[in-house]
């Protein structure tokens, strides 16, 4: 049966790139969205379905049956490294409630494969501690995924993603902040810059998700590991070299996180046939050129 995909978080950075890329290949993509104003970033070939609030199992069940979903890519999340009181309900709703609703509907309807996008950083810890409410919520949701896999025979895959970047990233992540600092000359408050990160271009992330989705070996965990790691200072130096502009980095203005180094092990299995193709230099140059083109167009 040809794949028919249902994607949550489709208007986010990773979700929108996945939807637009895969839809361009002729694969039927259905995006489950909460905010109609954000769907303008999606390709016209992506089928948009506006979800009610609160979303219900019955609504998702009816949708899955109607479009005959074969695979679900669960990209929806609410991320914050340091939550405030206003974030608590949003974290629980996006990171647990929505996913469990989708899982239950999948079991009751087509039994579609469930691809859960996870973060490397939710699995990293300081001793035995979970370092954020975000991480705790994502880890809790993993238990629900395992339950539906083991007890309801739902095919599932967990895909762990590292630090992503790319063109038109509005998430105020490191690369975007450094690019903006080089463009504007504004000072940028940073940590010591000695912690290591694993940057993977969003194009490679999309291909990694697709490779996991089409894998036929049953329920597994995959890791979209970078080819190499860099310190934040090294990433900043690369942008200075590419842009030929200085970055007014205020190193040490922010505290270092509890976990500062990436650790890889043999259990971090990549999807079959997948490896990052976009080098850091090529990816950063693309982001820099696009940022400056956007300035000219404005």
Please characterize this protein's 3D structure.
The chain has 9 helices and 13 strands. By secondary structure, the chain is of the alpha/beta class. It has a domain at 1-161: 3-Layer(aba) Sandwich (Rossmann fold), CATH 3.40.50. The protein has a 7-stranded parallel β-sheet, sandwiched between helices. Strands 7-10 form a two-stranded parallel sheet.
**Poorly predicted parts:** none
State the separation between the terminal residues, measured CA to CA: 46 Å
Strand content: 15-25%
Number of helices: 9
| E-strand count | 13
Q: What strand line-up does the widest sheet have?
A: 3-2-1-4-5-6-11
The CATH class name of the domain at 1-161 reads: Alpha Beta
Task: Give the SSE order as H and E letters.
Answer: EHEEHEHEHHEEHEEEHEEHEH
Q: What is the CATH topology descriptor of the domain at 1-161?
A: Rossmann fold
Shape: globular
Helix content: 40-55%
Computed CA radius of gyration, to the nearest angstrom:
19 Å
By secondary-structure content and strand pairing, the structural class works out as alpha/beta
How confident is the prediction overall: mean pLDDT? Answer: 92
Taking the sheet with the most strands, its summary is: 7 strands, parallel
Looking at this structure, what is the CATH superfamily of the domain at 1-161? NAD(P)-binding Rossmann-like Domain
Using the 3D structure, state the CATH architecture of the domain at 1-161. Answer: 3-Layer(aba) Sandwich
């Amino acid at each position: 049966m040809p794949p028919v995909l249902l994607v949550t978080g489709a208007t986010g950075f990773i979700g929108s790139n996945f939807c637009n890329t895969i839809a361009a290949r002729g694969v039927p993509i259905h995006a489950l969205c909460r905010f109609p104003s954000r769907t303008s970033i999606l390709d016209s070939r992506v089928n948009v379905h506006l979800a009610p609030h609160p979303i219900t199992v019955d609504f998702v069940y009816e949708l899955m049956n109607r479009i005959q979903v074969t695979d679900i890519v669960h990209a929806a999340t609410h991320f914050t490294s340091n939550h405030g009181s206003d974030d608590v309900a949003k974290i629980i709703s996006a990171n647990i409630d929505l996913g469990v609703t989708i899982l239950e509907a999948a079991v009751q309807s087509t039994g579609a494969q469930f691809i859960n996008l996870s973060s490397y950083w939710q699995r990293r810890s300081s001793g035995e501690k979970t370092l954020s409410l975000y991480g705790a919520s994502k880890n809790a949701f993993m238990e629900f995924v395992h339950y539906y896999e083991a007890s309801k025979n739902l095919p599932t895959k967990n895909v762990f993603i590292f630090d992503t970047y790319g063109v038109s990233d509005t998430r105020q992540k490191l690369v975007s902040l450094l690019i903006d600092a080089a463009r504007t000359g504004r000072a940028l408050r940073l940590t010591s810059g000695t912690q290591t990160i694993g940057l993977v271009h969003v194009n490679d992330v999309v291909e990694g998700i697709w490779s996991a989705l089409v894998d036929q070996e049953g329920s597994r965990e995959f890791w979209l590991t970078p080819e190499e790691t860099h310190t934040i200072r090294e990433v900043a130096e690369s942008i200075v070299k590419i842009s030929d502009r200085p970055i007014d980095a205020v190193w040490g203005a922010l505290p270092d996180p509890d976990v500062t180094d990436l650790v890889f092990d043999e259990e971090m299995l990549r999807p079959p046939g997948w490896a990052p193709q976009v080098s850091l230099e090529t990816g950063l140059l693309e982001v820099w050129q696009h940022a400056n083109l956007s300035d000219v167009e404005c």
